[in-house]
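Changelog-linked ticket: zinc ion example.
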Amino acid sequence: MIKNINIRTKSRNEFVDITSELQTLIDEAGIKGGICLVYVPHTTAGVTINEGADPSVVKDIQNTLSKLVPREGHYLHSEGNSDAHVKATLAGSSQSIIIDGGKLLLGTWQSVFFCEFDGPRHRRVTVKIVSD
Ligand code: ZN
């Protein structure tokens, strides 16, 4: 089964914790074991797993990405959002998470983040839940 999570981002760079939305989809599917594939069908956004307990971690990641990939640079792409495309590739467009006992098998401090690099926009995260 394929499900979508719709997201409306509010700023150009923004990480949105979608862990609880993913868990809700798994609960609704009634699946106890399997794989949750999270896919972002956009070229200037991505998905990553990192610490959700301390919001400073996400800020540090965003700040570091912006230092590594500045908004202005010698880019060829004429849309003016090349930094967002590069950041999206660094983050990656999918994550696979094991489902065990009806729960996402994440570490204690881990959360799943949708990564916006060219907002604000309406975005979609596509989720495929595969049962054992
Ligand atoms: Zn572009």
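Closing comment: Example verified and attached. The chain has one domain: 2-131. The longest strand covers residues 122-131.
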